[in-house]
């Protein structure tokens, strides 16, 4: 059973007998989802974040056409209804920052979201110019999280970001990468305690981060954002046509997306995972992975054994 009705279904219901009941039920689902959504603390402050957020690479790189933007507007609206907060962007993602800023502003929800973006250039002045441009595009005077994208000129930008944090232009600072080969360098920076967040790749089949990076983040009080949770769709291709194992229901898993996301979230070092989507139904499915029971050690073992068979 889906956790929330679509907007189209609600509108149809309004035109039919029992419309008020359907609408009330829809609102009830949204309210309950917010209450059930698991949150974890940012170690450096204790602020809590919902464990499932939204990535914007490719999906939010669209033009001004309402045909392209309306589905994204629906995604953001649903995310708000369900209690989601973290939206991750970057200047590398084309028009994503601008689209996020425009749509959250139109929806009057910009301040609700925890907006994260990145600096992706070389040189101090170029970095400052790019970050100021990101603030303008995202309709903010202060960004929740500014990250150094893929370690590019990270020492230069880290100095700037520490100053910006003192000035109140950024709330948190972080560093990111998306490949296993960068994990050792990320771990060194994490251990220096120079950042509040670290973002990297991790999935049920790509588990290099388990060797030491995840534990290093946990031990040094650094929040963790996970990218590439679906391996750019490779995980869905691997399970195409296959049924969920019956025991998946023991962990409130109702879809393959939830199977993959709940495995990641079952590692307590993970603060938030950011699957990208431009589809409201997929957004609801992803957010639902942050509710209910998470796999314990036995469950993780079953999941790992099962995925090795495909």
Automatic annotation (TrEMBL):
PROSITE patterns: TAT. It comes from Dyadobacter arcticus. CDD domains: AKR_PA4992-like. Residues 52-296 form the NADP-dependent oxidoreductase domain. Gene3D superfamilies: NADP-dependent oxidoreductase domain. This is Diketogulonate reductase-like aldo/keto reductase. Pfam families: Aldo_ket_red.
């Amino acid at each position: 059973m889906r956790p929330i009705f679509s907007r189209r279904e609600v509108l149809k219901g309004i035109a039919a007998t029992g419309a008020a009941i359907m609408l009330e039920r829809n609102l009830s689902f949204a309210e309950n989802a917010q209450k059930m959504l698991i949150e974890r603390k940012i170690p450096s402050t204790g602020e809590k974040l919902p464990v499932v957020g939204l990535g914007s690479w490719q999906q939010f790189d669209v033009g001004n056409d309402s045909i392209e933007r309306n589905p994204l507007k629906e995604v953001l609206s649903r995310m708000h209804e369900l209690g989601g907060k973290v939206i991750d962007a970057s200047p590398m993602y084309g028009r994503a920052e601008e689209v996020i800023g425009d749509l959250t502003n139109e929806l009057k929800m910009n301040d609700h979201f925890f907006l994260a973006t990145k600096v992706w250039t070389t040189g101090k002045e170029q970095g400052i110019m790019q970050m100021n441009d990101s603030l303008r595009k995202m309709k903010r005077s202060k960004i929740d999280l500014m990250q150094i994208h893929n370690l590019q000129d990270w020492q230069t930008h880290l100095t700037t970001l520490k100053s910006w944090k003192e000035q109140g232009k950024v709330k948190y600072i972080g560093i990111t990468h998306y490949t296993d080969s960068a994990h050792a360098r990320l771990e060194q920076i994490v251990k220096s305690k120079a950042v509040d967040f670290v973002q990297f790749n991790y999935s049920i089949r790509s588990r290099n981060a388990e060797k030491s990076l995840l534990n290093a983040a946990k031990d040094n009080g650094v929040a963790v954002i996970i990218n590439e949770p679906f391996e750019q769709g490779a995980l869905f291709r691997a399970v195409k046509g296959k049924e969920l194992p019956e025991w998946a229901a023991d962990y409130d898993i109702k879809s393959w997306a939830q199977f993959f996301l709940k495995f990641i979230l079952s590692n307590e070092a993970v603060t938030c995972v950011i699957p990208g989507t431009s589809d409201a139904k997929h957004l609801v499915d992803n957010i639902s992975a942050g509710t209910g029971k998470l796999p314990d050690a036995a469950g993780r073992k079953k999941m790992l054994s099962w995925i090795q068979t495909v």
